Each structure stands twice: as C-alpha cells, then as structure tokens.
Amino acid sequence: MHESRLDGSKIAVIGSGISGLAAAWALSKKYQVTVFESNNYLGGHANTAVCSHEGERFVTDTGFIVFNDRNYPHLNMLFDHLKVPIENSNMSFSASFPQRDLEYSGGDLRGLFAQKRNLLRPYFWRMLIDIARFYRKSEEYMRRDLDNVSIGQLLTLQRITAPRF
Ligand SMILES: Cc1cc2nc3c(=O)[nH]c(=O)nc-3n(C[C@H](O)[C@H](O)[C@H](O)COP(=O)(O)OP(=O)(O)OC[C@H]3O[C@@H](n4cnc5c(N)ncnc54)[C@H](O)[C@@H]3O)c2cc1C
To answer: Which CATH architecture has domain 3-82?
Structure first.
C-alpha cells in the first residue's frame, strides 16, 4: 500500500475476524477506519461461548483455539505487542455420539477403545483403517506436491466415505 494514496482516506474494513480486526488496528494508527460486521459480535471464527450446566459455568472457545511459534510468526508478534495472555496447550481430539452410545478419543489405544464395545464394532474398525490409509496416502500426495488438492478431494480420490455410526 502506498501511504501517499491513503493519506486522508477513510478506510472500510469488511469483517471483524482476526484478519479484519488486525488490519483495522494497524491502519487506525494513521487513517480513519470503519469496521463493518454483519454478525452481532466481533471476532468472526475466533469466538468464545459461555454456557452453564447444572449451575456450573463453562467457557469454551468454539473457533480459534491453538497456535504455535513456528507457523504463526505474525500472530505471535501481535499477541506479544498487545500483551495478550497465552497458555500452553496439548492438542487432543475426542468425539461423543450420545444417540449411538459411541465415544472415543484419538492419541492412543486406551482412548480409542475406552469403550470396550468399540472392539466389536465393525464400522469402528473400518473407520480406523480408513484413517490410517488416509494418512499414508496423503503423505504420498504431498510428496507429489499436489498443493491445491482439498481434503474433500483427497477423500474422494481414496474412496473414503463418512462412517455410518
Ligand atoms: C471450529 C473452528 C476451530 C478453529 N480452530 C483453529 C485453531 O485452533 N487454530 C487456528 O489457527 N485456526 C483455527 N480455526 C481457523 C481460524 O479460526 C480462522 O482461520 C480465522 O479465525 C479466520 O479469520 P478471518 O478474520 O480470516 O475470518 P473470520 O473469522 O471468518 O471473519 C470474517 C468476518 O467477516 C464477517 N463478514 C463476512 N462477510 C461480511 C459482510 N459482507 N459484511 C460484514 N461482515 C462480513 C463475518 O461475519 C466474520 O465476522 C478454527 C476455525 C473453526 C471454525
């Protein structure tokens, strides 16, 4: 952006996600910025939901949750500059389907088979085989430098369909 072109200009930023807010914040030091947001809250996908259950209050980040030093240099700088507090986190995954009485978590065998009956569920085994195949094959595709292939396309290529729980 050429500053001379922007001097005295009014700038409209559409959207108050992290991109819009960061751009608006940076530009607002010099220019008159107006942020337009169609939602009734700021932040876009970066959102924290507060709910209560049986008298207990739960605070859950529904969108942006984790980042790391290696892949987020600019976001790190922004957080440092704004003194945004951060906490260490470990990435984990778990799923619960109460209507099917099915639960599992990723990471290790204990989590996958926390419900012993998962050992006897053919569709569960099929899902695990599909996941292993997906990882194996996807690495192969990445080595072939297929940068523009979406996850959906990779799934179709490997004929992987959603498990029928
Ligand atoms: C469930 C979930 C978990 C995620 N977890 C992570 C994570 O752990 N780590 C990570 O790095 N990323 C994560 N992401 C991705 C990350 O949240 C997004 O990449 C990032 O927040 C996108 O920011 P953005 O500003 O580009 O867009 P958005 O956050 O989508 O913001 C766009 C904003 O523009 C507004 N808007 C759109 N059109 C208009 C219009 N015409 N007029 C006015 N306003 C408009 C929208 O309402 C929205 O507020 C997650 C995303 C989701 C959905």
So the answer is: 3-Layer(bba) Sandwich (3.50)
CB-based pocket (< 6 A), ligand 1: 14-20, 36-39, 44-46, 62-67
Rounded Cα–Cα distance for residues 62 and 44 (Å): 10
C-alpha 6 – ligand 1 centre gap (Å): 27
Q: Which distant-in-sequence residues (6+ apart) come within 8 Å of 23 by Cβ?
A: 13
Cα separation, 162 vs 150, in Å, equals: 16
Cβ atoms of 131 and 151 closer than 8 Å: no
Please give the Cα distance from 9 to 33 (Å, whole number). Answer: 9
Instruction: Kindly report, residue by residue over 119-134, the tens digit of the pLDDT.
Output: 999 999 999 999 998 8
Q: Distance between CA atoms of 77 and 11, rounded to whole angstroms? A: 24
**Domain boundaries along the sequence of the chain:** 3-82, 94-157
Q: What DSSP state is assigned to residue 52?
A: E
**Rounded to an integer, what distance in angstroms lies between the CA atom of residue 22 and that of residue 81?**
12
Of the two residues 81 and 153, the one the predictor is more confident about is 81
Q: Is this structure's pTM higher than 0.70? A: yes
